[in-house]
TrEMBL record:
Biased composition range(s): Polar residues: 814-834
GO annotation, cellular component aspect: endosome membrane
GO terms under biological process: endosome organization; receptor-mediated endocytosis; regulation of early endosome to late endosome transport
Stretch list, region Disordered: 775-834
UniProt domain DnaJ homologue subfamily C GRV2/DNAJC13 N-terminal: residue ranges: 28-253, 298-759, 910-984
Name under which the protein is recorded: DNAJ-like protein SUBFAMILY C MEMBER 13
Pfam families in UniProt: GYF_2, RME-8_N
Superkingdom of the source species: Eukaryota
Amino acid sequence: MESTSSSSSSSSPISTPPLQEEPEYLARYMVVKHSWRGRYKRILCISNVSIITLDPNTLSVTNSYDAGADFESASPIIGRDENSSEFILSARTDGKGKFKAIKFSSKFRASILTELHRIRWNRIAPVAEFPVLHLRRKPKDWVLFKMKITCVGVELVELKSGDLRWCLDFRDMSSPAIMLLADAYGKKGGDHGGFVLCPSYGRKSKAFQAASGTTNAAIISNMTKTAKSTVGVSLSMDSSQSLSAEEYINRRAKEAVGEKETPFGHWSVTRLRSAAHGTLNVPGLSLGVGPKGGLGEHGDAVSRQLILTKGSLIERRHDNYEVVIVRPLSVVSSLVRFAEEPQMFAIEFSDGCPIHVYASTSRDSLLAAVRDVLQIERKYLSLLDGQRPVTVLPRLTMPGHRIDPPCGRVHLLLGSQRQIADVESTSLHLKHLAAAAKDAVAEGGSIPGSRAKLWRRIREFNACIPYSGVPINIDVPEVTLMALITMLPATPNLPPESPPLPPPSSKAAATVMGFIACLRRLLASRSAASHVMSFPAAVGRIMGLLRNGSEGVAAEAAGLVTALIGGGTGDASLLADSKGEKHATIMHAKSVLFAHNGYVVILVNRLKPMSISPLLSMAVVEVLEAMICEPHGETTQYTVFVELLRQVAGLRRRLFSLFGHPAESVREIVAVIMRTIAEEDAIAAESMRDAALRDGALLRHLSHAFFSPAGERREVSRQLVALWADSYQPALDLLSRVLPPGHVAYLHTRSDGAQLEEENREGTLISRRQRRLLQQRKGHAGRGIASQEHSLPPVNNYEVGDPVRQINAGTLRGSDNYQKSSLDTNSGQSSAARSIENLTNDVASTGNPPNDHSPIIASADARMTNMHEESEPNVSNSVDSDACGPGVQNTGLPAPAQVVVKNTPVGSGRQELREALKAEVNKLDAEKARSEDIIPGGVTADVMAGHDSTPQISWNYTEFSVSYPSLSKEVCVGQYYLRLLLDSSNNGRAQDFPLRDPVAFFRALYHRFLCDADIGLTVDGTVPDELGASDDWCDMGRLDGFGGGGGSSVRELCARAMTIVYEQHFNTVGSFEGTAHITVLLDRTDDRALRHRLLLLLKVLMKDLPNVEACVLVGGCVLAVDLLTVVHEASERTSIPLQSNLLAATAFMEPLKEWTFIDNNGTHIGPLEKDAIRRCWSKKDIDWSTKCWASGMVEWKRLRDIRELRWALATRVPVLTSFQVGDAALYILHCMVSAHSDLDDAGEIVTPTPRVKRILSSPRCLPHIAQAMLSGEPNIVEAAAALLKAIVTRNPKAMVRLYSTGAFYFCLAYPGSNLLSIAQLFHATHVHQAFHGGEEAAVSLSLPLAKRSVLGGLLPESLLYVLERSGPSAFAAAMVSDSDTPEIVWTHKMRAENLIRQVLQHLGDFPP
């Protein structure tokens, strides 16, 4: 029954003063009252002194109960429905009568009953007490405590001191609330097991065990019954798990939601906790700092690490980094920046979690980072388009200002509630706000208490309506807007350049911020903005707040301006609805707010102080985004747009400092603004580039571009380095001194085919919609600026022949597409871009850098749209993992050899770059700090006075360079590191190695090869590293294209690289003018390893006919034949089962003593074997001029003129086996023979026989080729047989003499099964031999086949007929098969024991 006394008292003459002194409630809830008159809504207000019900329509008091005298108890109504929301409040109205049960219902029943029990806490005793053992995390032992079960929850009390150790309300228990632990034997529910209480809000669970005198079942039973009977909460229990206590501790230590997420930032903070280690719920009215530094009298303070990730806020302990609590960002409702305390802040939640209060020296940076992540993430989580703004309060939200404050139990049952105001509740609050506003403006606000009442309604409105604002379709009374505008403080009329006003008191600042926050919420209505703009005083008061001395007020005012001009929402439909009402409203608001240039100056000047709060700079930058950047930038008037650009560009170094802002969105916006300045104002862009160098900003952001974690400032830094280095030669020169040669070359390369791919990519710093804005503005901006400044040339009006302006823009993905924005969309590249492409063809291009460390590339056009995307895949994990992570995201091209940073040992090249940049940045910062100490506040004073700040020091960027000791041994040729090219070849990926200009690279390799042949570049006996360590040596490492110390090893690397390049690109490279030189050097070098590398190079050079001719011209045929003889030097012959021990034993025979030499005394020494000659050489008994002779030589020769000995004395370990050398030599000989056909185009035989055949047919060469088959190596035998066939074909003189070389015997002695080449040789030659003494006998058909064939005495005649009639294939098959037919009788045994054995016996130990 409603109280009439309360109603009459509220209408009495003394009812007005209480309006000024409205009590602060502990909580307010919207309930449904059940009475004999029906059900109707009431607002149940609970305070420490009274319980009041209000009519929600009028806010008049309907009932009031004294908490001490009129309130007896409260209890839930237990029904069959587990989700019942009814409860009974036992109270009396007159203070003397009987207590009556008043029935209410609310989904917040658990919270209401908890609060009602707490206000009578002193009059109720604990329900039960139990001795329990609590399992501590450290040292994992059970400690005796007392557990109190109260009417609202559970308390853990120290036995000795009686201090409250831990507490947990029933309403704050999770689901399941109780989990059973198993005992040591795996049994659950026993007295030796235990149970776990699980709290909500990411807090850690606690494990308990019944102590002596009680049982686990008794404790759990009492707990569940009490929770049900006192607050109506049903505690669920999980008995499905069988964890032991130790297993529970281990699992609890690993619990950390979000620990695997990439942190956006981490800060050292102090957590201010309430009593019971922060588990006691402290009313918001008593959240003061107590004597122990915590909240309340018994609260304490602990040191924590606060980690911000994409989806969570994580508290960790400092000592062991263990997670204490994890809070998802989705439940953060507001941030609190205490105006009174410069380091304190708090976080309020929307799921019922108690407020978290912290202190940090970097408070504003932390709050800015959290606010930024919150807004970005909510942009994607929200069902509505655009960001969800996050409020930053000057004080905590009073618990009694909200209606239905969040409750953990409701959040658990109903899920997360979206922070969006519904029409019904918003209309109700607007009604009360409008009524108070009407009284406040009536008669100039002279009604007593009207302003206090309005302030109370504003605070309640701000607490109940989300910061995103009222529903868009709701109508806001004009009187409300007028009252709010009226209550904003007026700003004195001062020049725009004047510094900010003196700061107001913290209470006054909080009040003004409340007014602004309320006004911002109202501006979400479609009609509110136009109403505000229509008030005469609105613009002056709103824009005047930007110069308020309180940074919190100025930041809130900047947010209000952003809301008025349509910023911050990211409404993608705005451009499509360019003629809509919202579009027109925004244009009108911008034109009114910035009608005077003074407001532009005031806005930008807030960024000038050196110590500006990150929250304020964030708010100002958001205004600049709405004015300059898309999607709303096109609604800005052109004159205002240009003035804003000029003012922002005038910030210079202060603008650079914003790239160190903790909010990623601010860094991105500033990058877009700077790019816009570069496009619209050439002079401002040039001054910014120069300032970036002098200030060291380019150095700092180059370091960030390489080494910042992915997703942080790295992308912005890449944009900036690209912007500042764009067509700016001093910056490009700096990059050439900082980056390794391959990166420098990449600055001039072009990434073909990447532009179209990036055209469709979303989410870049310069998105497609931003490019659209700049494209639309380009048409009138260039003309407008030119009309104001006739001397300003367009940014892109570069001379075609100016190489500085022609650095290739195509290296950036999508940059060509962006260039087209200033042209017709179908016109293709601009002439400047085409000339740039021609220029890069003359530069030593080196392809794309690898995916883990890409250089920053300067573009010729200022519109470098997606710079960060070109290099992002390459630097994602350059800091620690050095993997791509990092992937992300490469261009599809493999890593070229030009970039060696990752592949140096343990990433030392990258580490050297990082350390050099870091050291230079630290040195520059130290110098700046020292300069500020010498001239304290000089710069800041100038800035505050509105003048340009003159830097006290300037970075000496012209002399800064980075040396790479780890690259000193790397051989770099033509901007390529040879080791990586060779590694790609070893891995079978040489064909994937990208070369932009193979011809230039091949020539550079040969040039380096020739230079290292000059002994002047190296010093015998000197370690390469020592050459540059002494002042008495010139630093060879500084020579362009040199490294590795030079010498034979470098020449070998060059030869290997030339081999790989020519093999892959011989069609492009064409004929090589150094083929003859390579051939001669192959013969004359005393380096065995180099000889083998040159042999492989010569092998691939044979792919081109002019190279073959050049090689033959200098004696390459005989040289290749002599190389072929090396196969006989194999330490072991190829093992084939059929091979006889007769031939195999020759490899182990005593070496022939065939060499004799004349010593210095003229004495003949010998005969000696080769090993003895080598020993004499090592003892220096002989030298290159020593005369030597062996059997078969016509005359004595100097040692250097005897190829066999010269090669035998070669140094270094060979890289090819003897068989590999022979195989390469045979390939070369095949290429030489096939280079010139012995048939002309008409099919007639050419005479004389081609030179190569004549040379190879000579007695000097032909026997050696035939003897190669004695090696027994299948590949050698097969290739030698094919070569012999090619030599004697259409070469009659060689044909008839072939038998004299022993080739037929050697072929028949071969035990292998690959006989096709031998059969083809036999088929072409066996009946054409002059073994009877005359050539006519060989061709006489009158003789039997066995007589005509040179094989007649060696093979059965049946096999000869198979060869003659069936062909080589049938003959080869018959030779290795067992046949017993009327035509052929031939077996494997006949071949092995008869043919091969007897042939070898005939040959004896034939010397190789």
